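Q: Hi! First time doing this. I have a protein sequence and I read that you can turn it into a structure. Is that right? Here it is:
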Amino acid sequence: MSRPITPRMRRRIKREFSMERATVRIGKGGVTQQLLDEIDRQLEKNEVVKVKILKSALAERKAKEIASKVAEKTEASLVEVRGHTFILYRRKKPKKK
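A: Yes, that's right. Below is the predicted 3D structure, encoded as structure tokens:
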């Protein structure tokens, strides 16, 4: 897991990304390796990713369960789960010279 996210950082991320659109959508295929790779790529580039879970993916599990599973597999911090949408944060890894 990445470094713990502070309450101040959590508030800032929530405020900045509350009006943004989700950049990744989880559909009826659920959480696949391809989806995790895409989330990983976006976290590496932007540090923050907003993910929306479509209703077809919520048949078996709740949004919070899916969000925590994705956060665990991508080694990111779960910032917020609101309805069917969640925000992940992971600090960028320092580039090797």
